[in-house]
Specification:
Layout lengths: L15 H4 L4 H30 L3 H35 L6 H28 L1 H8 L7 H14 L2 H17 L9 H15 L5 H18 L17 H33 L4 H26 L1 H10 L1 H28 L1 H9 L6 H15 L2 H16 L4 H25 L2 H25 L8 H26 L8 H25 L3 H4 L1 H6 L8
């Protein structure tokens, strides 16, 4: 399992106070725009990396090195922002409590800085051992191991910068100041692109971009904190600090297991070839794109109401959850089918230039197709996990996550012999399937069933429409390839564009033929103008 999170910090959910006032539409639009821009620049980042370094062992050495600050950020602060910081900061956001907010924020920043400096120091001292555990020792070229250790030492301070930036982001979201923090992920990706292009012959440029981008995330948010009164102070017994830790406790154990499993994934990947990690990284970027957009659509259109309804009305909660599940299936199935059908020309269009060869394209496309087997389940699972969080249940999703990761590791180890690199993609799909099925069973039990909401009917119809989507795209691509071989940028654009349009056309026709009402009503759902009962 390669980590499917991007290096972009996850956006905190819109606080309840935001949902209740007239600025929700504007806030949601800003968050969605920031997410889209960040993901587009994320694709640009991977395109530049592919062009400059190809799917090489050198790039794999960088990916292993960059994993350390990113994983530590996810573990120490990244997971805390959504679950703990925004809810607690929001309690102190009103003007009459603003002075206490600055005090709480000061304590969080002070404690985090000390902890993170210690963590960075440990990484700097034990870099060879950490690199050895992750899998750098498995490189057939000993020089790549040395490169990975060097880059890891250089990248380690990024965990400090990203974490401080995310704490500030949590405070700004609680204060309803969305514009700047919504785009800090784009800043990070953009900095890596610029740094790589400035020094295209040096793999260190990617690390310098990571460091510069994460530091800029702090600097660019400071103007929005203009009225903050921050000072160095510690008080770990403060009620706010205790609440933050209490909310985060059920999640951190699951995150530890997740990060360990990702580290083992890197280790297993390096055993299948020096360039395997690079293939996985490129495929994962494409895998993330529709998943990220679907999650954004859900958070804008449906998820903000779940937490409120969980407190007030179980029937309304079930109705909204059912709408969300039907919506995610409607969005993700055609996206999966289209991406599966057009994997080869899409990979060629985005990555095949410079050091990234046609042979690299073939392997990356195949890796992507194996990953896509689990994409619909991953998207559905996001909805189920958010629904549990809305009911203030963070323990069961964490326990299910641990069980799913055990299944992943067992599957990967069993299949790595016959399947090699592709065993990790199959194991990832199995993990998502297991996690989704268990979460669905648990939620169905706790909600006394979700029958009568049309979920199964929508799923069957959407699957049929997605099948037509994929076949339409695949058929048009097969007709075009003899005329427009994938040996030039223009030909790739033509194949992807016309194949994509064929897929969209096929899906649109099937929406009306099968009468998929959730798809017809999608614009209204996104605007959230009114609550409708969609059968």
């Amino acid at each position: 399992m390669l980590d499917t999170t991007d290096i972009t910090p996850e956006e905190p959910p819109i606080p309840d106070s935001i949902r209740e006032d007239g600025g929700v539409v504007k806030a949601a639009a800003i968050l969605a725009a920031g997410n889209v821009v960040s993901r587009i620049l994320g694709l640009a980042r991977e395109t530049v990396k592919a062009s400059l370094f190809g799917a090489s062992g050198l790039l794999a050495a960088y990916e292993i090195a960059a994993y350390i600050p990113i994983s530590l950020f996810d573990l120490i602060i990244g997971g805390m922002v959504n679950s703990s910081l925004v809810p607690v900061f929001s309690d102190y956001a009103p003007k009459e409590r603003r002075a206490e907010l600055w005090r709480v924020l000061s304590m969080v920043l002070s404690a985090a800085t000390v902890l993170l400096l210690v963590v960075v120091g440990i990484v700097e001292i034990f870099t060879p051992q950490i690199a050895w555990l992750i899998g750098a020792r498995n490189f057939t070229d000993p020089a790549l191991t040395a490169v990975s250790i060097h880059l890891m030492r250089l990248a380690a301070p990024a965990v400090l910068f990203m974490s401080i930036a995310s704490i500030l982001t949590g405070a700004l979201y609680a204060l309803k100041r969305f514009a700047i923090p919504a785009f800090i992920g784009a800043v990070l990706n953009g900095a890596i692109v610029i740094a790589a292009l400035l020094r295209p012959d040096h793999i260190e440029s990617l690390v310098w971009g990571l460091l510069a981008g994460s530091f800029l995330q702090i600097v660019l948010q400071l103007p929005a904190m203009r009225d903050a009164r921050l000072r160095w102070q510690f008080n770990l017994r403060h009620p706010a600090i205790r609440r933050i830790l209490k909310l985060y406790a059920p999640i951190v154990a699951g995150l530890v297991i997740t990060q360990l499993s990702v580290a083992l994934s890197y280790n297993l990947a390096t055993r299948t070839g020096d360039d395997s990690v690079a293939f996985m990284r490129f495929a994962t970027t494409l895998y993330q794109f529709p998943l990220g957009l679907v999650v954004t659509a859900l958070s804008v259109a449906i998820l903000p109401t779940l937490s409120r309804q969980a407190e007030n009305s179980l029937d309304d909660f079930k109705h909204t959850l059912s709408d969300g599940l039907r919506l995610v299936v409607t969005l993700i199935l055609p996206a999966t089918a289209g991406l599966f059908a057009l994997a080869l020309p899409i990979v060629a269009l985005l990555f095949e230039r410079g050091e990234f060869s046609a042979a690299d394209t073939l392997i990356t496309a195949q890796v992507l197709r194996f990953y896509l087997l689990g994409l619909p389940f991953a998207a559905i699972d996001q909805m189920l996990v958010f629904a549990s969080y809305a009911r203030k249940d963070t323990l069961r999703p964490a326990l299910v996550g641990v069980a799913a990761i055990v299944v992943y590791l067992a599957t990967a180890v069993l299949l790595i012999g016959p399947l090699g690199l592709y065993s990790l993609m199959v194991a990832d799909a199995v993990k998502h399937i297991v996690h989704t099925l268990i979460m669905a069973w648990l939620l169905n039990r706790s909600l006394n069933g979700l029958r009568g909401y049309g979920i199964a009917t929508s799923a069957v119809k959407s699957f049929g429409a997605a099948l037509v989507t994929g076949l339409s795209a695949l058929g048009v691509m097969a007709l075009l390839l003899p005329i427009f071989p994938l040996d030039s940028l223009l030909n790739r654009v033509i194949v992807v564009l016309l194949g994509g349009l064929a897929g969209v056309a096929g899906y649109t026709v099937m929406v009306f033929v099968l009468d998929i009402k959730i798809a017809k009503s999608l614009p209204g759902l996104l605007r959230r103008r009114k609550k409708t009962n969609i059968a």
